[in-house]
Amino acid sequence: MNTQFKNILHSLGIYHPLQSQYRNFVFHVKRFFFKISFFSYKGHGYTCNVCLQQYFRFVDDWPAAENKNALSINNVIAGYGKNIICPNCLSNARERLVIAMLQHHINIDNKKILHLSPEKNIYQYLITKSQVVTADLVPGFYKNIDKQIKTEDATAFSFADQSFDLVIANHVLEHISDDLKAMSEIFRVLKKGGVAILQVPYSETITETIEELTIDNPKKQSDLFGQKDHVRIYQLNDYISRLGQSGFIVSKISYKELSAFHQHAIQVDEAFLDIKKPY
Ligand SMILES: [Zn+2]
């Protein structure tokens, strides 16, 4: 979209409502198409833990052409591949991994939760069990998920120390230049013994994290990091060590150890990081 036209829509306060209606329209068209084209794959293969429908195959999802190179040469586990999208509800593999952990590994009954850049399927699961505050730097984008979403900068939260039992920022830190500040803010607002879910795209084959903190060039960001608004590709051990520097205790649960959840078509080879603030 032309930037000047975008600015006019912003100044009229209708950019995000229009964008959200457009996304809604695309969602329904895709859903209609997948439901019909995947009807013959219905059966006991994978079970979606959002809508509980079962299919032998889920929908594959591959990166856009401009992002492919950076993701493939750096072997980034970034949420693409076979069996990523549920043909019935369109949940994706990264949401289903978090939901599986919330259902079986992390107790969220009656907890206070901060959900940054909220994903619809995760948010809707959380609110059945807990008190949830959602926030984003650009909240307009998420108003269709939670009308009450707050404007918050993850590197300078307005929340008091030890306000939350759980903070979820799923695939967020790779967008933030000062990620250590964001990690320390998440640590600060968590209660002692609190948990953070901070999954990111990562590579285990690069020798160090690739990053450019002041970059503001979508084309170059696609070339370097595999997405137009990312500022880095984390090297997994470096990511774990940054979380450690921020005070967290981190343990890695490998894809193999997540075998009970493979039936939900989670991302192949993606590990889950169990991140806790110590007592
Ligand atoms: Zn589903």
Describe this structure in words.
This protein has eight helices and 14 strands. The protein has a domain of 184 residues: Vaccinia Virus protein VP39 (Rossmann fold). It is globular and about 50 Å long. Helices cover 32% and strands 22% of the residues. The protein has a seven-stranded mixed beta sheet. It has a three-stranded mixed beta sheet with strand order 10-12-11. It has a two-stranded antiparallel ribbon with strand order 1-2. Helix 3 runs parallel beside helix 7 and helix 4 packs parallel to helix 5. The longest helix has 23 residues. The relative contact order is 0.14. Strand 1 and strand 2 form a beta hairpin. The protein is an alpha/beta fold and 279 residues long. Bound molecules: zinc ion.
| Global Rg | 19 Å
Name the CATH superfamily classification of the domain at 93-276. Vaccinia Virus protein VP39
CATH structural architecture of the domain at 93-276: 3-Layer(aba) Sandwich
Calculate the terminal CA-CA distance, rounded to whole Å.
Answer: 49 Å
Helix-strand pattern:
HHEEEHEHEHEEEHEEEHEHEE
Mean pLDDT: 95
Using the coordinates above, name the CATH class of the domain at 93-276: Alpha Beta
Largest sheet: 7 strands, mixed
Shape: globular
Estimated helix fraction = 25-40%
CATH fold topology of the domain at 93-276 = Rossmann fold
What oligomeric state is this? single chain
